[in-house]
Amino acid sequence: MKLYAHYRENTYTVILEPHRSVGYLAGLIAGLTSNCSIWISKFPSGQEISENIAISSFFDENDDVWVVRSEESKAPISVGNKPKEALEYLSLSQYSFYESGKMWVKVDVPFEGIGAHPKELISHEFGERYFGFSIRNFKGKNYKFFVPKLQCKINPEKSKIAIMSGSIRVSLYKDKENDNWFSLFKAKTIGGDDD
Fold first, then answer.
1. Three-state DSSP class for 62?
2. Gap between the Cα atoms of 82 and 56, Å rounded
3. Which of 14, 19, 26 lies closest to 50, judged by CA?
4. Ordered domains of the chain (ranges, CATH)
5. CA–centroid distance for 191 within its chain
6. Ranges for the CS domain (predicted)?
7. The predicted structure's pLDDT at residue 168
8. Are 43 and 63 contacting, i.e. CB atoms less than 8 angstroms apart?
9. Which residues pair with 135 in a beta bridge?
10. Angle at 182 between CA 103 and CA 177, to 5 degrees
C-alpha cells in the first residue's frame, strides 16, 4: 500500500503492507521526519487515529496521511544519510519452500551477502495466516519479502527466521500436522473457501 505522508511543507511516500497498524505507520513517518513521536490523522486538522487500528481499515491506496502532532528528537540528525524515499522497498520474488518433518515448512529466500548485514536492520513479522521480513539499507536499498495469505495457518509464536551467509530461512510451524502445503501462497479458487 502506498500512502503520502504530509508533515509541515514536506510530503513523504510511504510503502507498507495493509495489515500493519497505525502505530507502525506513525513510527515509519517519525523516522522520515526526524521526530521521536508523531500522531497522524486522515485529515489535516482531523482527530488522531488510535495506534492499534490496521491502516487498511482507515486508509485506501494512494491516500494522504497528515501529521497532526509531533515531538521532535533532541539528538542531532545527519540529513545526508536519510534519503527522502527511504521507505521504498524492492520486493524479493525468488524463493523455494519444502515441508520438513511433520510440523515445519521451510522457506529459503536467496540473498547474497545478507549474513554480513547488521541484524538490527532486518525485521520480521508472523501472523496466523501471513509472514514477512524486511531488510533496510542493504547497499543503500531496502528489500522485503511478504506473503499476505499463506496456503495454510501457522503458529506465529513457534515460527522463526534465520539469517544465513547467502540467504534467509523462514521456518513456519504448521497449525495442523495434516495440512497440505502444495503452495506457499493461498490461491483464490472458484467455489473454494477462504479459510
1. coil
2. 27
3. 26
4. 2-81 (3.10.20.90), 90-173 (2.60.40.790)
5. 31
6. 90-185
7. 96
8. no
9. 122, 143
10. 20
3-state secondary structure of 27: helix
DSSP letters along 95-162, please? -EEEEETTTEEEEEEE-TTGGGS-GGGEEEEE-SS-EEEEEEEETTEEEEEEESSBSS-B-TTT-EEE
CA distances from 105 to 6, 132, 171, 187, 194 (A): 41, 14, 6, 17, 20
The CA distance from 16 to 96, in Å, is 24
pLDDT digits (tens, 9 = 90+) for 38-97: 888 888 888 888 888 888 888 888 899 998 888 765 444 344 444 444 458 888 989 999
Provide the b/e sequence for 177-195 (b: ≥16 CB within 10 Å).
Answer: eeeeeeebebeeeeeeeee
What mean pLDDT, rounded, does the chain reach? 83
Query: Is 32 exposed, middle or buried, given 0-12, 13-18 or 19+ CB atoms closer than 10 A?
Result: buried
pTM: 0.55
pLDDT at 85: 43
